[in-house]
Amino acid sequence: MKKPTLKKYEGKSQEDCLKYQRYLTYSFRRIAASSKKYVDKLNLNKTPSELYFEKCLKSWEIDFQAQYVIIHPTFTYTIADYYLPKYHTLIELDGSIHNDPEILLKDKLKESMVKAIGFPCILRIKNEDISGLSEDWLVNYLTNLSQLTD
Hints:
Helices cover 50% and strands 17% of the residues. By secondary structure, it is of the alpha+beta class. The protein has a domain at 46-149: VSR Endonuclease (Endonuclease, Chain A, 3-Layer(aba) Sandwich), CATH 3.40.960. Strand 2 (77-84) and strand 3 form a beta hairpin. It is elongated.
């Protein structure tokens, strides 16, 4: 990930810096509250594929976070279905709605946003492929991906 620079603070008064810090804190809290409500809604309405995938990840003892919120520096956010911290990888389970051109465009925007933040990519798995997924395939894929992006 890119390290923040302090150039925007050079020549600014301490008061201006504190105002900016309060603005950032307020904006972050507003986004966090908004995204939490949406995440709670998503967690209540999981698809059968999501339930099955979570069951697999738990049985394979792969650490994950479901409905992972990613906040962009422009104070927009997106939510990935899953985040695997060990592999620094986002996973999206794509149902048939992801064949829609409008949704495909949103998916591309989401991918460019997460790449700008420092995630290498989003692993997209179609719902119909979930039942055939094996632990060996997923771990090998994630290991190879993390080696490519190091």
